[in-house]
Design a protein that fits this description.
Layout (H helix, E strand, L loop, with lengths): L9 H17 L7 H52 L7 H12 L10 H14 L3 H9 L3 H29 L5 H26 L1 H27 L1
């Protein structure tokens, strides 16, 4: 029976923990083994904790991704207005200069601000572009209205995602991170459960053999993924 490759990712360890725990719960013949019962109970607990921690990480990752899209919307608007500001067509140039001047009060640098500051600055920017004088120029320049609409959309999406993140974060206080759970889980599997099963395979294969075979396949399926990743 092979041990889990130590370079396994947190998500892969969580997968192993959950699958092994389910396998053990379905193996009625081993429920009277106090050693396995104790350690699989802990393994199940660790697996659920990793699943929850990974979910928390994914919420933050999603927020960063949405913020990146919002930043892109700011940059698109900036490039569009710069083009109109310098356009040689005299019927369009004044409109471009007017809108570019509004944008320059904020600049692309707002994308480097923290979430709260950037959100406030974007709201202020959009309000400036909604004034009567600005709206006339926006209407005169193809693509600007669409760029502003897209920025508004991404701003709203970010606001919703951040509200979800803040709500979740209030529930995460003092919860372990996925990374901090990695080592303890790996030790339960590699240093406790697997050595014990190897010994029991020799001592009472008729009782433990079937479970060990199924558990080995679970571990090997993940090890194959890890080895395949290393070959890329």
């Amino acid at each position: 029976m092979k041990k889990v490759i130590t370079s396994a990712r947190v998500t892969e360890l969580g997968d192993i923990a959950n699958r092994l725990s389910e396998l053990y719960k379905k193996t009625t013949a081993l429920q009277d083994d106090n050693f396995l019962s104790t350690h699989f109970s802990e393994l199940e607990k660790q697996g659920k904790a990793i699943t929850a921690a990974v979910k928390r990480d994914s919420v933050l990752s999603k927020l960063k991704e949405i913020d990146s899209r919002r930043d892109d919307a700011v940059r698109v608007l900036s490039k569009l207005l710069t083009g109109y500001e310098n356009i040689p067509e005299q019927t369009l140039k004044p409109h471009g200069e007017r809108l570019a001047a509004i944008f320059k009060k904020y600049g692309v640098g707002i994308t480097d601000e923290n979430y709260s500051s950037e959100s406030n600055l974007i709201e202020s920017l959009l309000a400036d572009f909604a004034t009567e004088e600005a709206v006339a120029s926006v209407s005169a320049l193809a693509g600007v209205s669409q760029a502003l609409d897209n920025l508004r959309k991404e701003q709203n999406v970010f606001a919703e995602a951040r509200a979800e993140y803040e709500k979740a974060r209030s529930e995460w206080e003092n919860q372990p991170t996925a990374t901090s759970l990695r080592k303890p889980l790996l030790e339960i599997v590699n240093k406790k459960i697997i050595p014990y099963l190897i010994a029991m395979q020799i001592a009472d294969n008729s009782k433990y053999g079937s479970f060990i075979s199924a558990a080995s396949k679970i571990i090997e399926s993940v090890n194959d993924v890890i080895r395949g990743r290393g070959k890329k």
